Amino acid sequence: MDRRLEEKRERIALKISLGAGVLFVLAELLMAILSKSQAVLMDSIYDASELIMLLFSLKLVPLLYKPVSEKQPYGYSQVESLFIAIKGFVLASVTVALVVNNVQLMFHGGRDIQFKQIAYFELFATGLSVIVILILRRLNRDSNSPILKTEMMEWSIDAIASFGMSVAFLVPTFVSHPWFDALLPYLDQIIAIFLSCFILPLPIRAVLTAMRDIFLMAPEEETMVLIKDKCEPILKSYHLHETTYDVVRTGRKIWISIYVLPNDDYVSVRLYSKVQDLLEEALKNDFSDFYIELLPDIL
Question: Which pick of 104, 131, 252, 275 has the fewest CB atoms within 10 Å?
Answer without folding.
Answer: 104
